[in-house]
Amino acid sequence: MANTLTEQEVQQLRAETKGADRIAHFNNAGSALPPDVVVDTVISYLQEEAVNGGYETEAKYKDQLENTYDLIAKLINAGKDEVAIVENASTAWGLVFHGIDFKPGDEIITTEMEYITNLIGFINMQKTHGVVLKIIPNDKQGKFNVQALQDAISPQTKLIAVTHMPSSSGAMMPIVEIGAIARKHNILYLVDACQTAGQAPIDVEEIGCDMLSVTGRKYLRAPRGTGFLYVRKNVQDQFRLLFMDGFSSPTVSLHDYTIRPDARRFELYEKSRALTLGLGKAIEYALEIGVVRIWQRVQLLATSLRRQLTAIDGITVHDNGDELSGIVTFSVRGIDSQSVKTKLSEENINVSIGVAKATLIYMEKNHLSSIVRASVHYYNTQDEIRTMCTVLAGIAKG
Question: Which residues does the UniProt record annotate as the domain Aminotransferase class V (predicted)?
């Protein structure tokens, strides 16, 4: 087991994050505070573009830009040719989902924790292609029923799509066990890992997924407008490309074109090179700390936060399951979530709101219109947690 982060290391990491001493930031599942080196990397690149020109600066940083693909591959244990850099997780997810050749009667299996963007995609495919959607509910203890998934599979099952760490709950889906079932039946398996990357280790070989979508702005602490897509090499040719340009199609004649032989076929040429470098620097930063060590720290802080919240009269913690993430969700009796968020903000404490539509199936099943979401990261401290819980105790008392 890796050594846990020491308090001295945490203080150093906080010193390398401008916002850490100005605000208690518990909205890392929304957008984490970036390290100073990430911000400096982006700004420096933009300044060079302004002086030297965009194409000229890109040529100068060719190797560093290319290295971002290597860093992503290392982060998730993938091949470099299985990685595409895109603007966000929704783009990554949509590129492969809408590239699948669905036929009427094909089945998609998902869970009650699926994110709104993905759910919209399922509904759209139902309406336009006659696809059948099967939803596997969690049991009364909040655990995903792996056997129910196994029982739901039929010869018509085309895709299993799962969000690993839901937007509005600390529960986690057993993506490795689900992957084993997908592999056993040779079914395409799509994992939304937008909250996972940078928070917990990801190994696409262990997961057994065919596709994986990730955003940069959350636990990776990368700039907004960054993300990436993983597509296993041996399934890349199964997807219809939604967009193509001279980058995805390297040779073109008046009558035909070729497609790149790697995952970059899912990219378009034009994107921010400054943000690409920022994404790479953020991943490099996380790898230097050690993702296992980050995960240990996040679990420590989240456990502490849940324990302290549970002890406050009038607060209900909503997270259930065998394994919980750094996303902590709760409500305060008699006070709407937006009011709680506003009162915390007045004390320089950032949290966010999980609205019903974000994880619609789960929220409606549990009769929740909204929840407060406090998401911890390794640069948060026990003092920040105690301060927030003191403020919340006062709010709960009215």
Answer: 26-386
Is residue 47 situated within a structural domain? yes
Q: Is residue 282 a contact partner of residue 222, using CB atoms and an 8 Å limit?
A: yes
Which pLDDT tens digits describe the chain residue by residue (398 residues)? 468 899 999 999 999 999 999 999 999 999 999 999 999 999 999 999 999 999 999 999 999 999 999 999 999 999 999 999 999 999 999 999 999 999 999 999 999 999 999 999 999 999 999 999 999 999 888 889 999 999 999 999 999 999 999 999 999 999 999 999 999 999 999 999 999 999 999 999 999 999 999 999 999 999 999 999 999 999 999 999 999 999 999 999 999 999 999 999 999 999 999 999 999 999 999 999 999 999 999 999 999 999 999 999 999 999 988 899 999 999 999 999 999 999 999 999 999 999 888 888 888 988 888 999 999 999 999 999 999 999 999 999 97
Domain shared by 327 and 300, yes or no: yes
Identify the H or E element spanning 211.
strand 211-215
In terms of C-beta density within 10 A (0-12 exposed, 13-18 middle, 19 or more buried), how is residue 324 classed? Answer: buried
CA angle 259, 210, 64 (to 5 degrees): 60
Domain count along the chain:
2
Q: Helix, strand or coil for residue 154?
A: coil
CB 83 within 8 A of CB 229: yes
Those residues with Cβ within 8 angstroms of residue 140's Cβ, 6 or more apart along the chain or in another chain: none
Q: Provide the residue range defining the domain that includes 277.
A: 41-288
Instruction: From 253, 288, 323, give the residue that closes a domain.
Output: 288
Residue 299 in any domain: the answer is yes
Of 263, 288, 313, the last residue of a domain is 288
The gap from C-alpha 269 to its chain's centroid, in whole angstroms, comes to 24
Residue 1 lies in a domain: no
Torsion-angle region of 199 (φ positive above 0: left; ψ -120 to 50: alpha; else: beta): alpha
Residues 26 and 51 reside in one and the same domain: no
Residues in the chain: 398
Residues 229 and 316 both lie in one domain: no
Residues 280 and 295 grouped into a single domain: no
Buried b vs exposed e over 190-203: b needs ≥16 C-beta within 10 Å?
bbbbbbbbbbbebe
- Long-range pairs of 306-312 with CB within 8 A, sequence gap ≥ 24: 306/170, 308/385, 308/386, 308/389, 309/389, 309/392, 312/389, 312/392, 312/393, 312/396
